[in-house]
Amino acid sequence: xxxxxxxxxxxELNLKIRHMRKSDVDNIMRIEKKAFNSPWHKDGFKxxxxxxRFAHYxxxxxxxxxxxxxGMWVIIDESHLTTLAVDESYRGLGVGKLLLEFMITKAYQxxxxxxxxxxxxxxxxxxxxYAGHGFVVRGKRENYYPDEDAFIMINDELDKWAKESRRRxxxxxxx
Length: 175
Ligand SMILES: CC(C)(COP(=O)(O)OP(=O)(O)OC[C@H]1O[C@@H](n2cnc3c(N)ncnc32)[C@H](O)[C@@H]1OP(=O)(O)O)[C@@H](O)C(=O)NCCC(=O)NCCS
What we know:
Radius of gyration: 15 Å
CATH class: Alpha Beta
Low-confidence stretches: 1-8
Bound molecules: coenzyme A
Helix content: 25-40%
Number of strands: 8
CATH topology: Aminopeptidase
Order of helices and strands: EEHHEEEHEHEEH
CATH architecture: 3-Layer(aba) Sandwich
Strand order of the largest sheet: 1-2-3-4-5-6-8-7
Distance between the termini: 9 Å
């Protein structure tokens, strides 16, 4: 699967996924500040892109508009989803699901057999998205967020979910 691809799922949106660039960070911050109570600083994204050799960050664009992004670390056979967010105006359209499926597929292609993430217990939409893709709550990190603990969710059947995701992405992309 190539990194850059056109999606046919909603042809009118003209969706495309590509690697995140430093020049994307201002547009990412526009989404980040609305999506999270404790947003990352823009330098966090910049250092991930320039200093972290385990980092894999992607953006999803509708035409030329950046509408979603996600990042992960892949270290040998382990992957960790560090962030995933969709512009408020584009939620509920299946964009988050596509991007998660893309990240699962990429992680597996990079050698990961497992993916972990932290999520707010109060974040019902995200928990449902992850639970629908094989992630199970396996623990809790106390005081992870300034105002809330985090659930640790793990998918340790990444091979199975990558195959499912790949099948769906291929059908969406017409490959
Ligand atoms: C969580 C988030 C990424 C979902 O993106 P999205 O594009 O709106 O989600 P999708 O339309 O692809 O929906 C995928 C699944 O998410 C769940 N979901 C999405 N919106 C939901 C809602 N309002 N209520 C309950 N479940 C919801 C559902 O399981 C849905 O699948 P289904 O429709 O087959 O049931 C998005 O709401 C977001 O950016 N939130 C703010 C940032 C965030 O919380 N990121 C996660 C950090 S851990």
